[in-house]
Design a protein that fits this description.
2 helices; mainly beta; Ubiquitin Ligase Nedd4, Chain: W; elongated; three-stranded antiparallel β-sheet; Nucleoside Triphosphate Pyrophosphohydrolase; four-stranded mixed β-sheet; single chain
Length: 180
C-alpha cells in the first residue's frame, strides 16, 4: 500500500508562462519549497489532487468492491472512486464515479471522512452510498466487481491506505450527514 502514484512526483522543469527554467526555492519559513521561474518569477504551486470514493451498500447489506485494472494498485481491491474534474461538485463526482466504475446508480447517505497522507498528492473524500439501480459491471479501469459481506473484505489485498482507513471507519459507524 506504499506504491508511488504518478501524481506524487512532479518532474516539472520549465515555466508554463515563459518556458524558462524553474528552481526550487523556500519563499516563506515553515512552507514547503516552491518551484519558481528564474526569469519571470512565476510561482508554480503544486496543488493536491482531489479524489472521491463511494462505499456502496446493497439492499442485502453487502458492499461493492472493484479490482483495479490500472496502476497504481493493479489487481488490488478498492471501492469505486476517482478524480474530481475541475469545477465538478464533489457529490456529483462521487455519483459519476460509482456509475462509471461499477454500473450502479447510487444515493449518497453521508460523508465517511476525508483522508490525506504526508508526502501524497491526493486528498480522498469518501462517501457512504446505497445502490438504487443499475447492473453491476466493470469498466476499462476494473478487472472485476464483487459484492462482499463486511467479514469477506480482502483486508490484505486493498489498494490504498485510504481504502483500508475508510472501510474501517465506515464499519465502525463513522458517518457525517451531508449538508447541501
Amino acid at each position: 500500500m506504499t506504491e508511488q502514484h504518478p501524481h506524487d512526483a512532479h518532474g516539472y522543469r520549465f515555466c508554463p508562462r515563459c518556458g524558462q527554467q524553474l528552481e526550487e526555492r523556500l519563499l516563506k519559513p515553515g512552507d514547503p519549497s516552491r518551484l519558481v521561474c528564474l526569469v519571470c518569477g512565476f510561482v508554480f504551486y503544486l496543488d493536491p489532487k482531489i479524489a472521491v470514493g463511494t462505499i456502496i451498500r446493497t439492499d442485502d447489506d453487502h458492499l461493492v468492491l472493484v479490482r483495479r485494472a490500472i496502476e497504481p494498485g493493479y489487481g488490488k481491491w478498492v471501492f469505486p472512486g476517482g478524480y474530481v474534474d475541475r469545477g465538478e461538485a464533489l457529490t456529483r463526482a462521487a455519483i459519476r464515479e460509482a456509475r462509471e466504475e461499477c454500473g450502479l446508480d447510487v444515493r449518497l447517505d453521508g460523508l465517511v471522512n476525508v483522508y490525506s497522507y504526508p508526502g501524497r498528492t491526493a486528498i480522498i473524500v469518501v462517501y457512504a452510498a446505497t445502490a438504487l439501480d443499475g447492473t453491476l459491471a466493470v469498466d476499462d479501469e476494473s478487472l472485476e466487481c464483487a459484492v462482499v459481506t463486511p467479514a469477506d473484505i480482502p483486508w490484505t489485498n486493498l489498494a490504498f491506505h485510504s481504502t483500508h482507513d475508510a472501510l474501517r471507519d465506515y464499519l465502525a459507524g463513522l458517518l457525517h450527514p451531508l449538508t447541501r
